[in-house]
Amino acid sequence: MTGQSASPTIGRRSIAKGAAWAVPAVAAVAVAPAASASVCIPTLTFSQNSCRCTGSGQNDKDYFVSICNNGTTCPDSDGVLYVSVRANTGANPELSPGLTIAVPVGGCSDTVHFTSGNSSINLRLYFGATPAQALLPSAGNPNFVIVTAPQECEELNEPLGTCVRP
């Protein structure tokens, strides 16, 4: 008794159908990681004793601030984010041009004192893994958060600085 086993033949159309399904699946896998990558948006705040002196002169506003990071780390930040402080107005001028504040991830920066001609109610904190990234121009730079400006120094029991009135 000779037996023949029936073996299905695979035609060119079957191969073409399989290839058509396989190629998009591979492409989708390659695109998925990039699309699912999350953007680093740290929660930056001023410490509770940070303050500003808005009445110290026509164009002379003192700020005494310590910036805190809730623990969000960003790619390449090595445990420290650098922040530049800008007014939340049309052109977003820097409150202290060229100043970057080192903010440890999960902690607060040292106290920084600077003077500005702007006493904006909200401030933009631009951040980056390096000082140069934090100082990138506002136009087209998505790395910022808007934070309410600190209270008046006179309203706090233990402010980080003292307002000097002329």
Global outline: globular
Number of strands: 10
| Main sheet properties | 4 strands, mixed
CATH-derived topology of the domain at 44-155: Immunoglobulin-like
Give the N-terminus to C-terminus distance in angstroms.
Answer: 116 Å
CATH class of the domain at 44-155: Mainly Beta
Classify the beta-strand content into a percent band.
Answer: 25-35%
The string of secondary-structure elements, in order, is: HEEEEEEEEHEE
pLDDT averaged over residues: 77
Query: Which CATH architecture of the domain at 44-155 is right?
Result: Sandwich
Sheet with the most strands: spatial strand order: 7-3-2-10
Question: Helix share of residues?
Answer: 10-25%
Q: Helical region count?
A: 2
Uncertain segments are: 15-38
3D architecture notes:
This protein has 166 residues and is an alpha+beta fold. The protein has a domain at 44-155: Immunoglobulin-like (Sandwich), CATH 2.60.40. It is 17% helix and 27% strand. The protein is built from two helices and ten strands; from the N terminus they run H-E-E-E-E-E-E-E-E-H-E-E. The protein has helices spanning 12-36, 131-134, and strands at residues 44-46, 51-53, 61-65, 67-69, 80-87, 101-104, 112-116, 122-128, 144-148, 151-152. A four-stranded mixed β-sheet has the order 7-3-2-10, with no helix packed on it. Strand 2 (51-53) and strand 3 (61-65) form a beta hairpin. The longest helix is centred in the first third of the chain and has 25 residues, at 12-36. The radius of gyration is 28 Å and the shape is globular. It starts with 11 loop residues before the first helix and ends in a 14-residue tail after the last strand.
